[in-house]
Specification:
- Two copies of one chain form a homodimer.
- With 220 residues, chain A is of the alpha+beta class.
- Chain A has two domains: 142 residues, Jelly Rolls (Sandwich), CATH 2.60.120.10; 72 residues, Winged helix-like DNA-binding domain superfamily/Winged helix DNA-binding domain (Arc Repressor Mutant, subunit A, Orthogonal Bundle).
- In chain A, 37% of the residues lie in helices and 25% in strands.
- Chain A has seven helices and eleven strands.
- In chain A, strands 2-7-4-5-9-11-10 form a seven-stranded antiparallel β-sheet.
- Chain A is elongated and about 60 Å long.
- The mean pLDDT of chain A is 94.
- At the A-B interface, helix 3 and helix 4 of A face helix 3 and helix 4 of B.
- Chains A, B: Keywords: DNA-binding, Transcription, Transcription regulation.
Chain lengths: 220, 220
């Protein structure tokens, strides 16, 4: 139980909660516990968000798809993390990405009724959730107004960063060269040159339709 | 007072609240009342969000700026409306647009402490705010994944729609032709042809650096 306390305090939604309140929460809240073996799916794109999942240990593989399904991005999400809290309320209460266990994972989940109870009873939980969703809305709302780079390498880096859940770590972009050229409004030749330059610098590797970036934080 | 009741019920944050709860809210909440004469500013970009403003009657002029300040969009926001509720919590508790009275306006506002009290006491208000901010985060989060059009006219329409607060009504885009060409990754000549075509169809008017769209909903 002590371990659960410490883990919960690392989660963005429980940050700043006092020890007294936390023991109260742990005592009264119906957390469900889940173990997920490597390669087992947690939730899929379009599935309904009926529970709020907290990743307590392990790493999830997250796959995001373009609406046209012409490309997708795979990335890793390590504990502690909350799974798409911005889709728990609002009009689109469905996940927009696939989440699969990369390593063995342990998770906690809360039913909607339990989340509503926590929101009702604990000011800090309520503020943490409001802050968390507001930050998402604010960050995404500023994106259309950002300055566009003239540099094709910067355009590619922005393309990737904008679509990744986290801004660091291992990313795999599965896209055909012509689709990437189309997305960046560049010629196929220019795209191919830019990617080869990045490969020479050791920042990514290219094979048929797969661009692997070992550390997104190094790609600038 | 009866009029205030009816007006509040039209606001997204009070939708679905029962008459009993509403009379409770109106009785116990310290609403501030504001009259704003035409052309007077309400709040400016970068100003801190310390109050939640509700536009109860009249029309505001909203100006949004690109980060580079190379272009801006002016639009109108009519009552009833809430001013940037997604900036009331989170990391960036500042307005990102200028709001000025277009006509004489009347507004209500709530201090942060009053908003926190409403969130604490009224489930529906809490859900409405969570829904409202979640919808913003969801809508903006899907944008990078949308399919890009090859058609320059569609690209221009998407450019405008993506940056407008409302998807209908009168919009003014102030931008130099070369900056628009840069934003859309097109040649100046193609941009100029496309805009002239739209002007011929009566969908917009162009003058030096000013593109006026009388009804965005007609521009497709």
């Amino acid at each position: 139980m002590l371990q659960l306390y410490d883990k919960l305090l690392e989660l963005p939604l429980f940050i700043g909660i006092s020890t007294d309140e936390l023991s109260d929460i742990v005592g009264q809240t119906k957390f469900s516990f889940h173990k997920l073996a490597a390669d087992k799916p947690l939730v899929s794109k379009e599935e309904k968000c009926t529970q709020l999942f907290f990743l307590m240990s392990g790493t999830l593989r997250v796959v995001s798809y373009a609406d046209s399904h012409r490309y997708r991005i795979e990335e890793e999400l390590s504990a502690p993390a909350v799974i798409q809290p911005e889709h728990f309320f609002g009009l689109m209460q469905r996940y927009t990405k696939d989440f699969t266990a990369q390593t063995d994972c342990s998770l906690l989940s809360l039913d909607k009724s339990e989340v509503l109870r926590l929101l009702d009873n604990y000011l800090i939980f309520r503020l943490n959730l409001l802050n968390c969703i507001s930050m998402q809305a604010q960050r995404m709302g500023r994106i259309p107004w950002r300055q566009q780079s003239d540099d094709i390498r910067q355009q590619f880096v922005s393309f990737l960063r904008l679509r990744c859940l986290t801004q660091a770590g291992h990313k795999v972009l599965r896209i055909k060269m012509e689709d990437l050229a189309h997305e960046l409004h560049q010629s196929r030749l220019n795209i191919s040159r830019m990617l080869n330059d990045l490969q020479c610098e050791g920042l990514l590797t290219i094979s048929r339709g797969i661009i692997t970036v070992p550390q997104l934080e190094k790609l600038r």
